[in-house]
Amino acid sequence: MVEQVSQADSDRAVMLAGVAHDLRTPLARMRLRAEMMDDARLRDGVVRDVDSMSHIVDQFLAFAHGGADRSEPVPVDQTCERIARSYRAVAPNAPAVQTHLTADAGFRLPTATLDRILSNLLDNAHAYGAPPVLVETARTPTGYVLSVSDSGGGIAPRDLAAATRPFVRLDPARGGNGHSGLGLAIVERLVLRLGGTCEIGNRPEGGLRVAMTFPFDAVPKDELHAQAA
User: Fold this and answer.
1) pLDDT (mean) for 21-42
2) Which of the four CATH numbers 2.60.120.10, 2.10.260.10, 1.10.287.130, 3.20.20.30 does domain 1-64 have?
3) Domain Histidine kinase: where (predicted)?
4) CB 3.0–4.6 Å: which of 5, 39, 100, 129 could bond 152 by disulfide?
């Protein structure tokens, strides 16, 4: 039974990845044609819609691809600060992205995985939450913690258990254009793949907090040594 369920999940992931991949080319053609429209208002509206669909396709592909991340492990604190700076430069509420990074240099995660975790959570915070958005790291006796929190309305307590279910939109107001209901599901899958845990909850002072814990050996030492060599 377990093998059958696993095979069914694998088949669905392959199908999802195939459909998403096949949609990329026609979406690119649509965007190119839209940019050639004379009516600026109509052109901008069509381009926004195509970009929204492209974002959903990218989320489908990210969710479907479940292979191990072989990208270079990087210091989490430095990467969090770098990504926060990039959001401050371009995002609407960018100045409100704050950091409190107290993990040591030993906290390392694969580059691609860390980028995807942070981009999904920061996009989620900006789309559904409110500033300030806080990115934190810390070392604990058993590992490391990485968390992202915002100051918005959070998630209704009755919906928290469904927050990481694929394709589930918790509130019609939280869907919007360009969102597939996969962001938190992708984050949880990435964290679990590294042997970590992902806890989603509302902050007492308001807003949503996603707290991820990682063991000290989330990236095996032999991989770190190989990268150093």
Assistant:
1) 80
2) 1.10.287.130
3) 18-218
4) 129
